[in-house]
Design goal:
The complex is a heterodimer of chains A (334) and B (301).
Chain A: H1 2-32, H2 37-47, H3 52-63, H4 71-83, H5 98-133, H6 138-152, H7 155-169, H8 188-225, H9 228-235, H10 240-269, H11 271-276, H12 282-291, H13 295-323, H14 325-333
Chain B: H1 21-31, H2 33-55, H3 86-92, H4 94-122, H5 124-139, H6 142-149, H7 158-168, H8 171-184, H9 188-195, H10 200-236, H11 247-256, H12 259-262, H13 266-294
The chains are: A mainly alpha (334), B mainly alpha (301).
Chain lengths: 334, 301
């Protein structure tokens, strides 16, 4: 238990350091931008007849620091605001705080990613077992090739092919934001609308990511099948169904790590799918903020995407020690 | 020429075969027609990247009567929204993408192998510092980082694009080269070399590097495809200004000109997508062949 807590503490310290580096990076980046956006906003406000004091206050609300200050004092202001989870306000949606915007986009992405990942995990694991069992024959080699290929191609290929053929040629699904006229909440039409908008992105997501699970599961099953204890159980005449259970439990272990890691990366990794399907999640928000030159929103979105990866890394490491008793015992001994 | 097969500790560590690489490759390629196809596909893309742009005039001819047309004899893949031949666009657009990807993959290999070898062989303090840096590079989500970087850096040439892709993408390779080095340095022949008093530089270059090279070579090939995806993705999302044509620009223009909405000019949208698919297929098949050349134990199965 002490070892576990020490590990957790180490992870958290490293995570905080990383977050600090990332925030520093985005701060420097915004100051380095051609045509200094901070200065630009300040001058634009002045030219609109706003008094210098008000303009300065307005800029501070947007970016978290005042124009004209020294870099150091600006940096201090910026970090101080961040500590209070204040990411500034959005430029494109005036007056809305970036935190609100980011959280709004996050729920859509999490929904999409969870559905897509679960789907691809299940497909990948099942096909991976089949590929491992039939690895000598054609079924196995076809599945392996399919896995490598789907694992290889980028998500936008899948997304664009599905968008073009399923929403244009066959008008089966709708794209774009969920209809704003519907009453949001837990009611039939609203939920149905969400489902019809999210099914295709989730399927595109699953199709472009199950290949990785398939390949990992296949090699994992093959290596477990070669273990002595499997041979021993077969020799002792244990029922195949029970032997299969032994295999499955051991072979699934590496998959959990992959699963946890991919969940972290997917918060920012669904960029293409969200863009292609016009789905208003984190990735689409990041792209829009770059297009709109809305840099406080951009750094907020990027920060959240990075935090997701850091958290998933910690979760993956801790999860592994929970599901695999061998790691736990080694950890306790060390 | 028989190489001595030594017991293998890690998946990445295979005994070095210093002779007959090309002959082995040829034998292995011939064993399966799919591998020949893979090699042919990759060769085709390399050819189109090298000589492609010389086959066409700098300003591609436009046919104003055929806008977003379907495939025909004159235009095998159809035309774009200005009436330009899609096949010509595809071939002339391949150079930027391929040059940037190859540059990026080379940078990735140099940094990743260098860091991994040094870290794994030296161990100690510099190892933990280098691995902290590697973890950092691995944790920062790569594609969002490129998106954010695109706000200050416009990647105006293929070389610059390759540089940025390579510098942000070497983490995984460094990690696996390091773990391969860690297991190699404990093996008999490395210990013998140390015992004989060989200088470290020679141990690393003559004993360790040849054993890691096959793994690195396969990563180079896979790296090229991943870097192609990232840059095509950046152009597709439209965050970069573009001066010349490339696959990503084609996808972006096809989408902004409504191909995904109307379905007209499908060839224009699909050509770069299918090119990416084909190239992936080619590389997957070729990597399968390389795997067998470098890892002779696979041949028995």
């Amino acid at each position: 238990m002490v070892a576990f807590l020490r590990r957790l503490a180490g992870h958290l310290v490293r995570g905080v350091v990383m977050i600090w580096i990332v925030t520093t990076f985005t701060f420097v980046l915004i100051r380095l931008m051609p045509g200094d956006p901070v200065q630009t906003q300040y001058e634009k406000l002045l030219s609109q007849g706003v008094s210098p004091d008000q303009a300065r206050a307005q800029v501070q609300v947007t970016y978290g620091f005042v124009p004209h200050g020294s870099w150091l004092s600006q940096y201090g202001d910026y970090l101080w605001k961040l500590l209070h989870l204040d990411l500034g306000t959005s430029v494109s949606a005036q007056g809305v705080s970036v935190t609100t915007e980011v959280m709004g986009a996050l729920k859509w992405t999490v929904g999409l990613v969870l559905a897509g990942t679960l789907l691809s995990f299940v497909i990948g694991v099942l096909l991976g077992v089949v590929a491992a069992m039939r690895r000598e024959g054609h079924v196995g080699s076809v599945l392996s090739l399919l896995g490598s290929l789907l694992h290889g191609i980028p998500q936008y290929v899948m997304a664009l092919v599905l968008v073009t053929f399923l929403t244009v040629k066959v008008k089966a699904f709708s794209t774009g934001p969920v209809d704003g006229l519907l009453d949001p909440g837990f009611n039939g039409p609203y939920l149905a609308s969400i489902v019809s908008h999210a099914v295709l992105p989730a399927v595109a997501f699953a199709l472009s990511s199950f290949g990785g699970y398939l390949l990992t599961m296949k090699s994992s099953v093959v290596s477990v099948l070669g273990d002595d204890f499997i041979l021993a159980s077969e020799l002792r005449g244990i029922k195949p169904s029970i032997v299969f259970r032994y295999v499955a439990r051991n072979a699934l272990l590496p998959l959990f790590t992959v699963l946890a890691l991919s969940l972290g990366f997917m918060i920012g990794g669904a960029v293409f799918i969200e863009h292609a399907f016009n789905y208003s999640g984190m990735g689409a928000m990041l792209i829009d903020s770059i297009g709109n030159r809305d840099y406080s929103e951009m750094s907020g979105a990027f920060l959240l995407i990075t935090v997701a990866v850091i958290l998933a890394n910690i979760a993956a490491d801790l999860l592994y020690s929970v599901v695999d008793p061998r790691v736990r015992r080694e950890g306790a001994g060390a | 020429m028989s190489a001595i097969d030594m017991p293998v500790a890690g998946p990445a560590v295979v005994p070095a075969r210093r002779t007959g690489f090309w002959r082995n490759l040829w034998t292995v390629l011939r064993r399966k027609p799919s591998r020949m196809a893979g090699a042919a596909i990759v060769a085709l893309f390399v050819l189109s990247g090298v000589v492609g742009p010389w086959l066409y005039p700098d300003n591609l001819p436009r046919d104003n009567d055929l806008i977003l047309a379907g495939p025909s004899l004159a235009h095998p893949l159809g035309t774009d929204f200005e009436g330009t031949d899609v096949l010509a666009l595809l071939i002339t657009g391949s150079r930027y993408v391929l040059v940037a990807a190859v540059v990026a993959a080379l940078i990735m290999v140099v940094i990743g192998t260098g860091f991994g070898l040094y870290s794994g062989y030296r161990r100690g303090f510099s190892d933990s510092v280098l691995m902290r840096i590697t973890d950092f590079v691995l944790t920062i989500p790569g594609f969002p980082l490129l998106l954010v970087l695109s706000t200050v850096w416009k990647f105006s040439s293929a070389l610059q694009m390759g540089l940025v892709l390579g510098i942000t993408g070497w983490g995984g390779l460094a990690r696996s080269v390091r773990s391969a080095t860690l297991s190699l340095r404990e093996r008999g022949f490395v210990e013998a070399a140390r015992g004989l008093g060989m200088p470290t530089r020679r141990i690393v270059t003559a004993e360790l590097l040849p054993n890691i090279a096959p793994y690195v070579a396969m990563n180079l090939l896979i790296g090229v495809t991943t870097f192609i995806y990232s840059q095509v993705g950046l152009f597709y999302l439209g965050v970069l200004p573009f001066k010349s044509n490339n696959w990503g620009v084609m996808i972006q223009l096809a989408v902004t000109n409504g191909v995904t909405q109307t379905g007209d000019g499908l060839g224009y949208l699909m050509a770069p997508l299918v090119a990416i698919l084909l190239l992936t297929l080619g590389v997957v098949l070729l990597v399968d062949a390389l795997d067998e050349v470098f890892n002779p134990r696979l041949r028995e199965e």
